[in-house]
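sorry to bug you again but im stuck and you know this stuff better than me. below you get a single protein, a line of residues and a line of whole numbers that encode the local backbone shape. mainly i need to know what kind of three dimensional shape the backbone takes. anything you notice is useful, everything is just below:

***
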Amino acid sequence: MNTVLAPAPLAPLRLKKNEERRIRAGHLWVYSNEVDTVATPLKAFEPGQQVQLLAHNGKSLGNAYVNPNSLISARLVSRDPQYVLDRSLLVHRLKVALSLRERLFDKPYYRLVYGETDQLPGLVIDRYNAICVVQITTAGMEAVKEQVLEALDKVVHPEGIVLRADSAIRKLEGLESYREDIGSVPEQAIVEEQGLSFSVSLQQGQKTGWFYDQRMNRARLGNYVSGKRVLDVFSYVGAWGLQAAAAGASEVLCVDASESAIDRIQANAASNRLADTVATLQGDAFEALGQLRANQEKFDVVILDPPAFIKRKKDAKAGEQAYHRLNQLGMQVLRKDGILVTASCSQQLSESQFRKILLQSSRHLDRSLQILERGHQAPDHPVHPAIPETDYLKALFCRVLPA
């Protein structure tokens, strides 16, 4: 008779007295200064090692994985100590994540996994129909990479997987950067959104190739752009601009600094039969806006969707100044009674501070500002209520009037 050996118990990671309160309240992260390093020295653990998380009194808080070299020294993966991060748990969590996306969207183009809010810290997966782009950002998730790929194959059956293990966060975890293609991966993938199709590069594109988080906000453009002249700044591959053109804009000008992005905007406009409406301008966003202002160009709608200007707290002052300057330039090329659609993906910038920046920009130009709609990240980027870092995107639809 064959004997099945029970898995070895996980090594304990004990917290200091009263430091379990945040975990019990719903958070998933343990900071290094919360660990009882006398009872359980962090240096005793390997990066990515799975542990049983214990309160100071020895009661289990669940299972986690640890990285002794990171400020976030542990991330909880299950509150039930009988479940470890393995193929079985990954399959279950992926199925739960997939059920939400299939409820929300009728086609397989979405963020399938959004880290902590899908109970898979350190893992992001974007789906492009038969292709999945996988980002692994922590040592704990890197340690189970093969099980992640096996679980993804079982649940989604992708034809190809792109591993984009090149996030800057990996450096904080002591991980190397790399990219890897698995299976059949085309040079370009197609994204379908609001009846349009977009070609994106999965290997060379920004992030995972597409920004699904703005999809609901882009869908709102139809209320504002019909018959209007539209300026789309930081266009990337034309997601906002082409949606404006399809919604009836009379003219759309897309601005981006990247030559390859400009080429892709033009190709996407042509494939969607919008080339007669969409023009492009390659150049730095701030310089392009300044030149448009100098040329006395005016637009009915200006869209500003920049990258994060504030990535860390120490960037706050310079980042806020950049948002102020950008939005002021955007308002300066608006016609009277124009619409400004402006966004920030900087988690460190609160919506209230973002509104304050817009107000200051409008008052500096002696304009009045009305906020018409407030947008948020799409529901395939759900927010974990205990982790503010998961709530990052702000999009405001504003009416800018003479004072």
